[in-house]
């Protein structure tokens, strides 16, 4: 029984030039691996870009909330100033007005 070597004829695994079918398959698999690695690399770059964009959006939202908090704080400060002064009638009128608006809205929603 004789085994075929690299340069001897063509058996199932070797061609006449000594190039293995396995080597051919390995090259094909390497190309597939390169394509997958390239796709993975581009995907990770896109994910990084998206993360940077989302972080920028969150920073912008924080700025918006900070400015809203400043506006709300200023309004509450004015209400406190009203309550400290001798303008208790004005504060009572404001609270009655708020209750009146709330009652009208409640009534309107209930009838709807």
Automatic annotation (TrEMBL):
<dbReference type="InterPro" id="IPR039899">
    <property type="entry name" value="BET1_SNARE"/>
</dbReference>
<keyword id="KW-0653">Protein transport</keyword>
<feature type="domain" description="T-SNARE coiled-coil homology">
    <location>
        <begin position="20"/>
        <end position="82"/>
    </location>
</feature>
<keyword id="KW-0472">Membrane</keyword>
<protein>
    <recommendedName>
        <fullName>BET1 homolog</fullName>
    </recommendedName>
</protein>
<keyword id="KW-0812">Transmembrane</keyword>
<keyword id="KW-1133">Transmembrane helix</keyword>
<comment type="similarity">
    <text>Belongs to the BET1 family.</text>
</comment>
<comment type="subunit">
    <text>Interacts with SNARE complex members GOSR2, SEC22B and STX5. Interacts with LMAN1/ERGIC53. Interacts with STX17.</text>
</comment>
<keyword id="KW-0813">Transport</keyword>
<dbReference type="GO" id="GO:0005789">
    <property type="term" value="C:endoplasmic reticulum membrane"/>
</dbReference>
<dbReference type="GO" id="GO:0015031">
    <property type="term" value="P:protein transport"/>
</dbReference>
<feature type="coiled-coil region">
    <location>
        <begin position="19"/>
        <end position="46"/>
    </location>
</feature>
<feature type="transmembrane region" description="Helical">
    <location>
        <begin position="90"/>
        <end position="109"/>
    </location>
</feature>
<keyword id="KW-0333">Golgi apparatus</keyword>
<keyword id="KW-0175">Coiled coil</keyword>
<keyword id="KW-0256">Endoplasmic reticulum</keyword>
<dbReference type="GO" id="GO:0016192">
    <property type="term" value="P:vesicle-mediated transport"/>
</dbReference>
<dbReference type="InterPro" id="IPR000727">
    <property type="entry name" value="T_SNARE_dom"/>
</dbReference>
<keyword id="KW-0931">ER-Golgi transport</keyword>
<keyword id="KW-0597">Phosphoprotein</keyword>
<comment type="function">
    <text>Required for vesicular transport from the ER to the Golgi complex. Functions as a SNARE involved in the docking process of ER-derived vesicles with the cis-Golgi membrane.</text>
</comment>
<dbReference type="GO" id="GO:0005794">
    <property type="term" value="C:Golgi apparatus"/>
</dbReference>
């Amino acid at each position: 029984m004789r085994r075929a070597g690299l340069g001897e004829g063509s058996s199932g695994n070797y061609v006449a030039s000594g190039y293995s079918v396995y080597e051919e398959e390995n090259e094909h698999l390497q190309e597939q691996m390169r394509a997958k690695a390239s796709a993975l690399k581009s995907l990770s770059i896109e994910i990084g870009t998206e993360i940077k964009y989302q972080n920028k959006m969150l920073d912008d939202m924080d700025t918006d909330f900070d400015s809203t908090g400043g506006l709300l704080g200023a309004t509450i400060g004015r209400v406190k100033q009203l309550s400290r002064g001798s303008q208790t009638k004005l504060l009572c009128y404001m609270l009655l007005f708020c209750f009146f608006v709330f009652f009208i809205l409640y009534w309107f929603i209930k009838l709807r």
